[in-house]
Amino acid sequence: MIDLRGKRILFTGRLRSFRRFQAQQLATILGAKPVNGIDKNVDILVVGIISKPYGQLLTTQKLTYARTYGIPKIDELAYRYDKEFKQNIINLYKQGESAAQLAREYGIGYSTVHKWIQGQAK
Length: 122
Description:
Elements: E1 8-12, H1 20-29, E2 33-34, E3 44-47, H2 61-69, E4 73-75, H3 76-80, H4 83-94, H5 99-106, H6 110-118
Helix pairs in contact: 5-6
C-alpha cells in the first residue's frame, strides 16, 4: 500500500467498511492528515461506492477533480485490509481495546480480529 505518513488523504463515495469518521481516524493513526475538500494539495483519494440514478455518470466531483489533476486513487477495500491496518488493530488491542469492541467498531469479524491478534493472519 501507499505510505500514508504525512499525506493529505480524502474519501469519496459511500464507504462499505467504515463510517467516514472511522476511516479518517485510521488515516490519522497511519500518519496521514484527513481533509474534507478536494484541491491540488490532496495526495490520495480513497474511493468507496459511487452510486447514481440510471443514466448519470458514476463519478463524484472529488473523483473527477482527482482524475483531471492526476491525484492517486485507491480503492477503499485496499485501504482497509492493508498490513498497516491489521497492525493498527493489533496495537489498539494492546492498548486495551477488546477484540469484540474492535470487531464492532471497524466492521471486522471477531474471528478475523482474534486471528490477527494471535498472529495467524497472513
